[in-house]
Design brief:
With 347 residues, the chain is mainly α. Helices cover 70% and strands 2% of the residues. The chain has helices at residues 3-24, 29-41, 52-62, 66-82, 86-101, 105-113, 134-160, 167-171, 173-182, 185-203, 215-244, 251-266, 268-274, 282-322, and strands at 325-327, 333-335. A two-stranded antiparallel ribbon has the order 1-2.
Length: 347
Amino acid sequence: MGRLKQLRIFNGVLKDKASLIKTTLSTKRQTSIIRRAILRATTHSSSSPPSSNRIDAVIASGNGSRPRACTCIHAIMDRLHGTRDAFVALKCLYTIHNIITKDSFILKDQLSIFPTFGGRNFLNLSEFHDDSDPESWELSAWIRWYATVLEQNLTVSRVLGYYLSSSDSKKNHTDKEEKIFALLSSDLLIEIDALVGFVQEISNVPNSLHLQRNNLVYEIVRLVSEDYRLIQREISLRVVELDERMTSLSVDQLTLFMSALKKFEDCKARLSLLFVNRKKNDGLWHLIGETKMKIETTMNKKAEEMALVRIIKRDETREWGRQPFRFTSDGSRLGLDRVSLTVSTVR
């Protein structure tokens, strides 16, 4: 480890101690407890992920009431936005991810409200850079990617109407299938598009995949892989349902469906690199391939039917044009069969 990096870590430790001392001097006891828990989970001193005890302490400090949850989320955001250290930022994001994943509804609720102040990019890390050393510079790309993934997680949860990572979402398969069955096809297409958008953000992982040897990055990828597993299931349920409705879908809907599946397939290679040592869902990719072929067949059939309808209408128009007609007293036109007229002459 270089001397400059050692000095930087030492300075970071001093900052953490100073911040902890500051919290003890605060007159707001509850806020002080929350901030101490967050500081201990997001230290400068280690490149390892926060322990489960540290994460649980943060979540426990924010549970119990809405004001406490609000204070906790704002304290995490203050820590995240107030640092230029790559490891501190990653630990903050990792803590947020655990809040999303674990069953702390009140904290997740406050976290989902927080984006209203900053739009889709509410974590506001798109320009984060730590240029203190080459490793930190590479980690900065992971921070920007991870922030976007977490933002997309909450965005998709709002589209679906439930938290993607909640235990209720994982357990109630029957309820979920009934909900999907009751949705309009247009709504299912909107949900598939959002889910595929989430997959696209995951697949935009930085090229420095070798950094997974770092314990913190490795743990982050593990959590994201769990999210991806849930996304696969959500996509599968909706693809199966839309497959059942295939013949009732309009050409525009079929086009949107095909586009979403193609985007999903385009992510496959990059996802394989990211999750190289994790279980692959070959069954889902087989379903996607078969569904694409069925969509193409259905679209061709609908195109033939539309062409046939146009031909029939054209022929009917031509036949109508050949019919003689006369006008009634009110000005409307009546078609007449051709008849022979006998003309008599009277002298």
